[in-house]
Amino acid sequence: MAPQTLTTSPLKTNTVDGLHANVYNPRMAKRKRARWDAKSVRALRKHLRMSQQELADELGVRQQTVSEWETGMYHPRGASGTLLNIIAERSDFTYATDEADDRSA
Does residue 79 lie within any of the structural domains? Predict the structure, then answer.
């Protein structure tokens, strides 16, 4: 019996453009960068009716980190900022974006 070969859908991974075409979602272009300051992080958490610990658990960070964001000691960045954006959008929470700054300038 001859060995079987696996066939998969062809992916264009030999170039950056080809790889981009495989993972790019047009909705990504519409996403705006949020500015997560202390007030907006706390407002989102209150909108979700969560404690700092509950939000921290959802984001995979420590409760102390959420507290530091809410006191302005640090700001969410990287994956945490992205997750906050997604949570805010899905919960119909209105938050400030860089685009708002561009319109007011």
Answer: yes
